[in-house]
Amino acid sequence: MKINGYEIAIPEEKLAHMVQEEMLPIEMVNMEFEGYKTLPEGDKKALAHLVAAAKIMNDVALEQDHPLNRTLKKGLEEAAKGSEYAANALKIFNSLNGVTGLNGVDQEPVKIFAGVEGYKGRNFYPTDLSVEEFHKIIAKMLDEGKTDEVRKILSARTMVRRSGNELKAVDYTEYFAKEFSAMANELEVAAHYATDDLFKDYLGWQAQAFLQNNEDMDMLADRHWAQMQDTNLEFTVSRENYDDEMTPTICENAELSSRLAEKRIEVVSKDMLGIRVGIVNKKGTELILKFKEQMGKLAKLMPYSDSYVQSVAGGGDVNQTMVDADLVALTGDYAQCRGAITTAQNLPNNDKLSVKTGGGRRNVYHRQVRQSHDKAKTQRMLDALVAKEFHQYFNPEAEHIFVIGHENGHSLGPNSEYQNALGVYKHTIEENKADVVSITFMPEYVKAGVITEETLKQVYATWIIRLFLKAKPQLIQPHRVGDLIHFNFLREHGAISFDADNKLVIHFDKMNEAMHKILDETIAIQLSKSPEKAKAFIDRYSTWSDISEHIAKVQKELGIKPYKDIRTYF
Questions:
Q1: How far is the CA of 460 from the CAs of 101, 161, 438, in angstroms?
Q2: What are phi and psi of 120, to 5 degrees?
Q3: How far is CA 565 from its chain centroid?
Q4: Which of 185, 233, 240 is nearest to 49 (CA)?
Q5: Can you list the pairs that 282-288 forms with residues at least 24 positions away whose Cβ atoms lie under 8 Å?
Q6: Which of 50, 92, 154, 297 is the most exposed place for a label (fewest CB within 10 A)?
Q7: In this predicted structure, what is the pLDDT of residue 559?
């Protein structure tokens, strides 16, 4: 079947199997949800407009991701009215939120249409732009003194297009002027109805940030967002830059990087945009805030803590809000479920002006994502891969505790000055760091009475079992590469082993020492600002061993649901 001239590449029978057997539903809350029914009427009205803005943002992310996304999605929607084949292709498209992605099993690309490939620079850059040509054009523009345009090209908030033999950057507020204006209008109406003054104020600033080509407006919106602790609603504009593989290649070109540094031009990957809408869960938030109370103490315990400035002051208040959210909508970057879906976020990231100028952060946890759990499949996995005596320690809620530690971990350690210097390896090292901070400092939460010794063992065991991968990951999957690094590090340092039946054995008494070692090594790499040291670390600990292959094979045989069906009801 052809859609807009492009043939659907996945056979009809296989596509039906993917949808029926390999897709995990993730239910957003609906109007019967108790947390919604107890909202003030004004917040209910505001929520409808926030979801409308979120849906508009999804079109923006589709355009950022691939030049054919929007037209092929429309073609699938029309064809799906009379074809089950097209309807199933549309479901996979919506799961990936694009024409290509990763399947989450063997990490091989999923290509919905024949001849439609993904690009290193997504659609942020011209699709025919090679890395070599990219570097040559930037160097030539520097030779000609066009430093301001180069600075825009290498910023996080521009779409880059050809202009003769050069490149030209177009700010998001200009390139997506129609969509940004429509979103700003929805936010202004939502602000009119919302009942909380801080939330109203934030929406006003975010609306203006959509309308003005001014990084300061993003900074001010971020600052207001990060101050809200007791609001009923959650609305997030996510700006993360994991998807752009083109911009970071500059950091691997030593000569060009040096020239840019002389001109004080920062190299920052492009932001993929998304929106999260939710209702704050007050009870879940109480637990998260108990962990927040320990962050000042943990900052002092970080390796080499006297060698850098952390966003968390060692002795003062933590400039960070944290909430547990019942999700109403995830769009754009959030909905690009290409092998995984995020369970929480700590924003703004270190490259953002708000953080650089001393603004706070905000952690938001996704209840509906973490609660989408297949208990029967998990038990089959434990039976096949984990020694019986450790089954008692596996607890999905313990994973939530690990995630709290992970998100807090992003606020500890060296800032973006050190992270960005690692180039294409920066995200892998940073996600590895956040994981390691979480597990390394779990005993400190026991000392503080936040969790028990029994919970500590559950966190250790559940995290380790979650390190089981279904395929060797690619560098563009920083979380999964980090999982493989941790798995191999723990094996090398004797914290985990496998018995004669290839089942996991956990040596709890060796966990603390091993984790402190990897945390120390990770922070040393960030402080080095050396892409070479980062690469050596990743290469050493991301080897794919026979036991990893065995674990992947068993999980595939048990059946995996790599595709996500985000079901939104508003």
A1: 31, 48, 10
A2: -60, -40
A3: 18
A4: 185
A5: 283/324, 284/324, 284/365, 284/367, 285/322, 285/323, 285/324, 287/324, 287/404, 288/322, 288/323, 288/324, 288/363, 288/365, 288/404
A6: 297
A7: 75
Burial class (CB in 10 A: 0-12, 13-18, 19+), 248: buried
pTM assigned to the model? 0.83
| Model pLDDT for residues 418-464, shown as the tens digit of each residue | 888 898 899 899 999 999 999 999 999 999 999 999 999 999 999 99
Per-residue CA distances from 515 to 98, 194, 494, 511 (Å): 38, 45, 11, 6
Residue 17: the pLDDT is 94
Residue 12 one-letter amino acid:
E
What confidence score (pLDDT) does residue 338 get? Answer: 84
Q: Are 429 and 528 in contact (CB under 8 A)?
A: no
Write down the residue that tokens 């439609």 correspond to.
116
DSSP letter for each residue of 352-402 = SHHHHTT--EEEEEEHHHHT---HHHHHHHHHHHB-GGGGGG--HHHHHHH
Give how far Cα 536 sits from Cα of 124, 418, 492, 540, Å: 29, 17, 16, 6
Name 517's Cβ contacts closer than 8 Å, sequence gap at least 6: 489, 493
Query: Kindly report the CA angle at 66 between 64 and 69, in degrees rounded to 5?
Result: 105
Q: Which residue do the tokens 């970071």 mark?
A: 248
Reduce the DSSP state of residue 105 to 3 states and report it. Answer: coil
Residues contacting 509, CB < 8 A, separation 6+: none
Degrees to nearest 5, angle at CA 502 with 504 and 460:
10
Quick one: DSSP state of residue 444? H
3-state SS class at 207: helix
Contacts of 328 (CB under 8 A, 6+ apart): 28, 29, 47, 50, 51, 277, 278, 279, 568, 570
> How far apart, in Å, do the first and last CA atoms of the chain sit?
32
H/E element, 522: helix 511-528
| CA–CA distance, 452 with 177 (Å, rounded to integer) | 52
pLDDT of 104 reads 62
Distance of CA 405 to the CA centre of its chain: 16
pLDDT beneath 50: ranges in the chain: 314-315
Residue keyed to tokens 């998100």: 407
Q: What element of type H or E holds 159?
A: strand 158-163
Q: Is 410 strand, coil or helix?
A: coil
Q: Which helix (H) or strand (E) holds 167?
A: strand 166-171
Please, which residues bridge with residue 235 across strands?
277
How buried is 465 (Cβ within 10 angstroms: 0-12 exposed, 13-18 middle, 19+ buried)? Answer: buried
DSSP letter (8 states) at residue 125: S
Cα 493 from Cα 76, distance rounded (Å): 51
B/e letters for 287-307, b = 16+ CB within 10 Å, e = fewer, are bbeebbebbbebbebbeebee
Task: Give the rounded distance of the alpha carbon of 445 from its chain centre.
Answer: 25
Which residue type occupies 453?
Answer: E
| Cross-strand partners of 303 | none
